[in-house]
Structure formats: C-alpha cells, structure tokens
Amino acid sequence: MAVLPLALLAFLCFGVLLVLPGALQPAFAGAFGLDLAQSAGLASALMTGVGIGVLASGPLIDRLPRRPLFASAVLACSAALSAAALAGGFVALLAAFAALGIASGAYETVLNAAVPESNPARAAARLSIAHAAATLGAALGAPLLAIAAASVGIARTLGGLAAAFALLAVAGAFARFPLPPRERARLAGSRPLPLRALAPLALASA
Asked: How far apart are CA 106 and CA 102, in angstroms?
C-alpha cells in the first residue's frame, strides 16, 4: 500500500480517537460512575498522551525505519483500546487513555513526516488531504460511537475499535514508507547539513 491511502485511513481513525472521550461520556459515566471532572480527565489523559507521543517519536523518525515504527504504534493503540474495554475502574481507564494518546501521537508524527517526503512536489496538498481525513473521522465518529455504545455496549465498542486498529497495523506493515533522511543521506554518500546552516531556519521557525 502507498503512504497516502494508508495515511487517509490512519488519520480517519485518529479523528475517531479524538472524539472518543466525549462521544462515550454517557456510557463511561454509567459503567464506571464517573462525574464530569473524571470524564474530563479521560480527555485530558488522551490529549496529554498525544503530546508526549509527538515529542517522543520526533527524534526516532529521522533515525529509524518508518514502517515498523508506524505498525508498532498502531498496534499499541489496539492494545490500549483493548485495555480500556477490559478496565475495571477509573484509574485503569485513565491509564489506557494515556497510553492510547501516546501511541496515536507517535503514529500521527510518522505520517506527518512520511506523507510529504513520499512526494515532495505535492507535499502541502497531500498533507492537507490526510489531515482532512481526521476531521471527517471526528465528524463521523462521534455519532457512530454513541450509537454503537447504546446498541452493543461500551466494551464491545472499544473492542471493535481495537480490532480496526489491529487491521490498520497489518496494512502499515506492508506499506511503502520513504527512508529516513539519515539513511537517504548515507545511501547517497552525502553528509547531513551542519548545525550552523540550519540555525537561521530554526530561528525563523521559533
């Protein structure tokens, strides 16, 4: 599978994850007796985890092969969703959502690098399309999650999401990711740019 179709699917799923705490708040409240502060804590744990995942995976994607990084992160999302489905209390649920955020932030970062690098001439357009899929996933995911939780229960809803992410990990394991910059430079026999050459760009970006 090419990177862009995989990114569309992955960002669609990422959008679903972003609305997961809000869409399932009534179900979580009923199953675990959560008040509004605890329900908000699930959303905070998820988003804090996303931030940690982005920061932690950033240095790795320039050094390690992207395909195993992506597949491992998505598989970790599946495991976290399975843990949430089996959680017996608020603390376990909170930990599962934090792990889900870290894993999803990691795979999002891999794609944010791989999509533009797979076709630099159309990088902006391709990345915009991929991110639009996250918006679509959030818009569709909220009502579908609520309907699923009301129909089959929260555990089966989370279990179904876990299965979907496991399939996404399988697809990612066979996707064609571009090589990391350091590996491309090594194969081309070139050296990375010195820090002084990157300093103006870093200053402007900051």
From this structure: 6
Interacting residues of 98 by C-beta distance below 8 A, sequence separation 6+: 45, 46, 48, 49
- DSSP state at residue 113: H
Rounded CA-CA distance 71/169 in Å is 5
Which among 114, 108, 3 has a CA at the least distance from the CA of 53?
108
Can you give the three-state secondary structure of 67-99, one letter per residue?
A: HHHHHHHHHHHHHHHHHHHHCCCHHHHHHHHHH
Is residue 149 within 8 A of residue 85, CB to CB? The reply is: no
Q: Is the pLDDT of residue 202 over 80?
A: no
Task: Give pLDDT tens digits for 27-50.
Answer: 999 888 998 899 999 999 999 999
Q: Which of 168, 146, 157, 176 is nearest to 11 (CA)?
A: 168
Q: Say what the pTM is.
A: 0.84
Q: Which two tokens stand for residue 73?
A: 């992160």
